[in-house]
Amino acid sequence: MIGVEEIKKKALSKYTTFLESVVNNENIFPLIISGNKKPSKSTKEFDREIRELLSNSKEQKGYGFTIAYETRKSKILGTQSFPSKFSFESEIDYLKFLNKTKEVALFREIKKETFTEFSELKTWMLKYPKKIISNKENWDAILKVCRYFKKNPIPNLYVRELPIQVHTKFIERHKGIIKDLLDILIEDYVNFDASKFEERFNLKFSEPLIRFRVLDSKISEKVFSGISDLSIPVSQFRSLKLKIKRIIIVENKVNLYNILTLPNTENTIVIFGKGYSVSNLKNIEWFNDKEILYWGDIDAQGFEILSQVRSYYPQVQSVLMDTNTFTKFYENDLGTISLVKNELNLTKEEGLLYNRLKAENLRLEQEKIPHGYVINFFNNL
């Protein structure tokens, strides 16, 4: 037979529905819990379960569930009145049973205050009432943040510079719920393509740096006052629009240093891609008409990163990532097992080598290729 704990579990499963009814000013009572369950196998056990149900019922406690019975015959118990359903006749009965009275009172206060200022959040509150419950102790501070952004949708400040009377780390710790609300409240000003909170809501942030070397001394002198090795924020790098012809992207620092020893090379820059951080190079418009070369490790991950770069710029060509180079310099090193299953954006030859490297977990790191061989290769491009 169903017990008190199972009744509570089923009642809790309806809590979200109840909170939705509060948002909508609806009455969902009486709330019915089904009691259809096989009876106990002994009279003694049946009597014990009935006593437990009665002692926790509204009849005994003054609140909680009311028991409805149906009379039927059982082979073991004979003709008995079996509990058939349990109903919470009122909100008071339901909330006192679940010990949620104070929580719901606070939920109603939050709803009233929020609707008064931000009626456009009703649909969201109806859909995510449990998010409100999870953040109930912080709701006043959350509304302070909402008020500020509603008046200042383009702050252009760092998060901790915002003149909001909340803890300095409050926004950083509650970005998820604040993002949900601001997406609605300042919809016309949200950068929906940006996943980073600061970028999404027009805040300053510490950007990743792009390190690159200008191999053409004339461009270095003309644009950067003779400085050839630079690291600048992504947004500034995007705005450079350098008048060059060729971009070389290398995966790690060792090969960045290798290429730095190249003699003056016209209309060319080399960029340190930092492995998977190469994602920082996407959406750079002035890359679109440039020749782009990618040089990574000859292992599964190297080709996966190559595929990633090629998804940004289809014209990307790999260099020093071929079977001949691998065969010539491979030193029996093992790589990192790849779990990638999707098809990569590789040429036929690259794909064949990738499949072998992945299947056998092989690796030739860039730095294992002799410096002289590298310099000779790039000098003859």
TrEMBL record:
Residues 206-374 form the Wadjet protein JetD C-terminal domain. It holds the Pfam family JetD_C. Residues 5-183 form the DUF3322 domain. It comes from the Bacteria. InterPro entries: DUF3322 (IPR024537), JetD_C (IPR024534). This is Wadjet protein JetD C-terminal domain-containing protein. It comes from Kordia antarctica.
